[in-house]
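Example for tutorial group B:
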């Protein structure tokens, strides 16, 4: 049990750890190069350490240093024989993206996960890879949706590829950066070009990795066109900016606290990643981007000041650029005047927990007015603010989900009483430094 003490105001400069999504991808792409890559800043969290462990088990040399990682790749084909057993832990990113590489290798791999990951669906990435000629087996279970396909769950067995994978046209039913990334990596081993089309633009971290590692890529609207035959070439050194999703908790904290100002240094501001900033701007948030720079992605210092927030409506097409920030956006909505509606949130059901349920449960404990509207296949969250807090319960639940836990802590810090949360260990999945950083703000007013 962790106690959440109230914070009255805060004025401070802070640093956020490196980006998780980019950390995963840089390690994976570096492992395919024949040269050494120095990753000058790397997120050491439970999820990213799983990716490091997986590439090591595939025969890649990894040298972990104090704040950096050196990866010495062996080329596009890992020199393994027999069966390789990999453990993704709770990291869906590790499993989904690496499937795109493993299906083209000459050995069999077995991909295992923690019990929570074994409950998360993998059909969205497995079925397109099967269309490319991959051989992937998993646990199958029928679904309520009339799709004609059974859902697939880990553990996964990926059998060796006897022939080149088949390129082609793939129209994804859901915008997913992880699925897109798996197909893009598989396309490197295909017999012809691969065209991937999404209903909405998802995060483009992998597209940027292609460019950074010298791999040809074309973009036409919502289509990504990949051509085989080009080997990744290491850029030598890479600096990873701070994680926007982690910064989001402190952005919202700075907005809802009175008489406060936070400066968050070196944060990734990739436009396909920071949709939360555009939504908060509509909500009258006082946020400025200063000292803009470029590395593998654009980054800047984010200056946040206390704001009187207004409600807004979030459209379904905006969700891919802020899907991980919805829990903390809902906290901001509690303090905004009017009714905020967030549409297209069905993807929240298949995260570490059902975030629609976990968000609603914690908000209701402080008396917030939150409803789930729409249909089961197209749900929307409705939150009416500003909250007139009628504290019904002083105990939040993390539901074993890192983003649910951090959002609850930010919410609880704005109450006049001490709140408690059942579990903070899950935060180590993405942001191990969160609790020390948060506690440092309790005396920074």
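The residue assignment follows.
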């Amino acid at each position: 049990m962790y106690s959440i003490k109230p914070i009255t105001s805060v004025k401070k400069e802070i640093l956020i750890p490196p980006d998780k999504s980019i950390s995963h991808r840089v390690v994976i792409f570096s492992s395919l190069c024949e040269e050494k890559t120095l990753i000058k800043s790397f997120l050491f969290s439970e999820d990213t350490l799983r990716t490091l462990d997986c590439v090591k088990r595939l025969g890649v040399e990894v040298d972990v240093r104090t704040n950096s990682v050196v990866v010495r790749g062996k080329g596009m084909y890992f020199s393994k024989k027999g069966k390789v057993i990999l453990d993704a832990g709770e990291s869906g990113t590790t499993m989904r993206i690496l499937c795109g590489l493993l299906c083209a290798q000459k050995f069999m791999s077995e991909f295992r996960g923690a019990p929570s990951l074994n409950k998360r669906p993998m059909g969205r990435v497995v079925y397109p890879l099967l269309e490319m000629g991959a051989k992937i087996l998993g646990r199958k279970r029928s679904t309520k949706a009339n799709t004609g396909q059974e859902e697939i769950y880990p553990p996964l067995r990926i059998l060796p590829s006897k022939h080149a994978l088949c390129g082609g046209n793939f129209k994804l039913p859901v915008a997913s950066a992880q699925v897109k990334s798996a197909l893009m990596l598989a396309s490197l081993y295909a017999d012809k070009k691969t065209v991937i089309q999404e209903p909405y633009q998802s995060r483009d971290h992998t597209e940027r990795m292609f460019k950074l590692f010298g791999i040809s890529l074309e973009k036409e609207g919502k289509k990504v066109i990949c051509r085989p035959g080009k080997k990744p070439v290491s850029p030598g050194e890479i600096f990873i900016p701070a994680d926007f999703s982690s910064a989001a908790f402190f952005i919202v904290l700075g907005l809802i606290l009175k008489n406060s100002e936070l400066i968050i240094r070196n944060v990734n501001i990739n436009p396909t990643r920071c949709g939360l900033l555009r939504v908060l701007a509509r909500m009258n948030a006082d946020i400025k981007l200063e000292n803009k720079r470029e590395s593998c992605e654009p980054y800047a210092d984010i200056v946040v000041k206390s704001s009187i927030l207004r409600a807004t409506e979030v459209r379904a097409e905006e969700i891919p650029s802020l899907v991980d920030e919805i829990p903390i956006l809902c906290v901001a909505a509690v303090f905004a005047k009017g009714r905020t509606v967030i549409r297209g949130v069905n993807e929240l059901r298949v995260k570490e927990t059902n975030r629609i349920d976990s968000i609603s449960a914690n908000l209701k404990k402080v008396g917030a007015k939150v409803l789930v509207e729409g249909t089961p296949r197209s749900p929307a969250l409705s939150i009416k603010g500003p909250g007139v807090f009628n504290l019904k319960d002083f105990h939040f639940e993390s539901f074993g989900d890192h983003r649910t836990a951090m959002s609850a802590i930010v919410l609880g810090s704005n109450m006049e009483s001490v709140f408690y949360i059942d579990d903070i260990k899950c935060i180590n999945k993405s942001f191990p430094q969160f609790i020390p950083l948060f506690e440092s703000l309790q005396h920074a007013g």
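DSSP finds twelve helices and 23 strands in the chain. Compare this with the pattern of hydrophobic and polar residues in the output above.
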